[in-house]
Amino acid sequence: MSSTIFSDQPVADPCNGKLSIRDGARVFFIHVRDIDWIEASGNYVEIHVGAKTYLHRETMNGFLGRLPSHEFARIHRSTVVNLNRIRELRAIERGEYEVIMESGQALETNLSLGRLRELIEGV
Questions:
Q1: Which single residue of 23, 39, 84, 114 has CA 20 to 30 Å from 100?
Q2: What is the DSSP pairing of strand 26-31 with strand 18-23?
Q3: The whole model's pTM is what?
Q4: CB–CB of 87/100 below 8 Å?
Q5: d(CA 55, CA 10)
């Protein structure tokens, strides 16, 4: 086996779009397209994939650098979303919105409606 499989850093395989993620004593292989959203938690990231959450030791900036920038975007200081998994934008206050994921999870954002639309529509 390759030593990169057990690295603390996720390794994206450009051929199959997978990341290896160490969560405790286990290593999981996750398709990048299956990631719903990622939340910063100190020097860790919580990777949300369907009903599962993986805790991985790496900063948000480091992890974000391993993801395709055309599919993932930071919507808040501590939150990155898979743009293909956004279901809707919901107004919560004048000029403020929350992002609703396909799973129904509501996420806080500090981006304007215009900027959110640009990200989602790929403008």
A1: 23
A2: antiparallel
A3: 0.82
A4: yes
A5: 12
